[in-house]
Amino acid sequence: MSAVATAANAKDSAPAFDGVSVNVVLAGHITAKCSVGGGGTINLGKLVANKQATARFDVGCNVPFEMVFRSTSGGIAHATKPQGEGPYTGIVPYRLGVTVPALSPQPVQLHADFTSNQMIAGAVLDSGDAIAAGGGEIRLQTEMTQGSDLLAGQYGDSITIVINPRV
C-alpha cells in the first residue's frame, strides 16, 4: 500500500503543462504558364469585298494575360508588289475579330476587334483579371477599298499571336 501512495504523491508534485504547440509552415510555388498553338493556312480563294474566314487556336494561361496580334503586311499583300502598280492596289485591308473564353471566376468571353493596319505595331487583347479557359477563335473579314482595283497575282499575310502572362 505504501508504494501506491508514493506514486500518487509523485504525480501530484510533477510540473503542470497547459499545452505545447508547434507551428509548421507550408510553402509552395506554381510557375506562371501560358501557351498558344494551332495556326495553319487559310486559303481565301478569290479576294472580294467582305470575304470572311474563321480559324480556331489553342490558348492556355494559368494567370491573367495579354495577347498581342501582329500582321506582317498590315493587310493581305501582293506577293511581289504590295505597293501596287499604276491604278491597281496591292493590298487588301481586313478586320480581325478575336474571341477567347476565360474565367474570372465565372466564365466570360473576351472580345477584341482590330484592323490589319493596327496589327502592324501589335494590337493587344488584355484579359483583365481573367485566366484562359480554352481555345479561341479569330474571324477575318476583308475590307476592299471602294473604287480601287487589285493588281493580279498571289496575295498573303501572316498573323502572329503572342501570349504574355501578367503576374
Give an overview of the whole structure:
- The chain has one helix and 14 strands.
- The protein has one helix at residues 2-13, and strands at 34-38, 52-61, 65-71, 76-78, 88-89, 91-92, 94-103, 107-115, 123-126, 131-132, 136-142, 149-150, 155-156, 159-165.
- Strands 1, 2, 7, 8, 10 and 11 form a six-stranded antiparallel sheet that branches. Strands 9-3-14 form a three-stranded antiparallel sheet, with no helix packed on it. The protein has a three-stranded antiparallel sheet with strand order 6-4-13, with no helix packed on it.
- The N and C termini lie far apart (74 Å).
How is this fold's topology laid out?
Blueprint: H1 2-13, E1 34-38, E2 52-61, E3 65-71, E4 76-78, E5 88-89, E6 91-92, E7 94-103, E8 107-115, E9 123-126, E10 131-132, E11 136-142, E12 149-150, E13 155-156, E14 159-165
Q: Tags for this entry?
A:
167 residues; mainly beta; 3-stranded antiparallel β-sheet; 14 strands
Element-level helix/strand string:
HEEEEEEEEEEEEEE
- Global structural class: mainly beta
Count of alpha and pi helical runs = 1
Share of residues in strands: 35-45%
User: What overall geometry do the principal axes of the alpha carbons give?
Assistant: rod-shaped
As a whole number of angstroms, the C-alpha radius of gyration is: 32 Å
Low-confidence stretches: none
Mean pLDDT: 89
Q: Describe the biggest sheet?
A: 6 strands, antiparallel
Determine the fraction of residues in helical runs and give it as a percent range: under 10%
Distance between the termini: 74 Å
* DSSP summary, beta strand count: 14
